[in-house]
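**Fold tokens**
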Amino acid sequence: MKTAKRNTKLKASGPTPAEPGAARWGNDIQSSAEQGGLKRFAILRAAAELFNERGFYETSLNELAKRLNVTKPSLYYYVKNKDDILLQILNQALLEFTPAMTLAEDSELNGLAKLEIFVTQYTMAMTGVFGKCMVLSGLGPLEPSSRDELTPTFRLLDTFVRKLLEQGMQDGSIKPCDAKITAFSIFGAMHWLARWYRPDGALNVQQIAERVFAIFESGLKAPRRRKSQAPVRKRS
């Protein structure tokens, strides 16, 4: 089995979410056609913050416009409605989770080590404003067509973790387990983070990610095989 030195000191990928209340369109983003993408991102970030603070249904487009310091009609140039906003937020969250799969897949490590990379990177992305919104708002408020658009990617993430677990069982780094239930448990733990994580807490994101994986590692890691001892000769 080919092994390599593991390095789980990974940095969160994708745009770094601003602190709540930091998004300001009218003052911070001005002029030039190339600013269109930044304006759309500012809308999504501010909307995600509001959804996280107040809830999807309790947040109005008027409140979003107020937070961005723009008029409500200005929003419609970039988004259609609240459904479209949430759909784009969830797509952004999924984009930030993609590197977790890429880094794990590209490594030449065993199944358990790949799972560590995935869980560490995914957990760190989960602390961002978009990952948190994915959990707190979820797919429920979306129109059926929007949910259908996102479902394949969510299934891909689940399938990927199951594959790592099965690989680990095959290469001996993970002891036999139910891949389906284990994958559900791993995602449940990572997603629950969105409900209790606080940036000003005692642990930083890297430390939390390491501790989350350590919980699963202790239960999944296959025991080391003992070298067979030489038979004891009987005295005559």
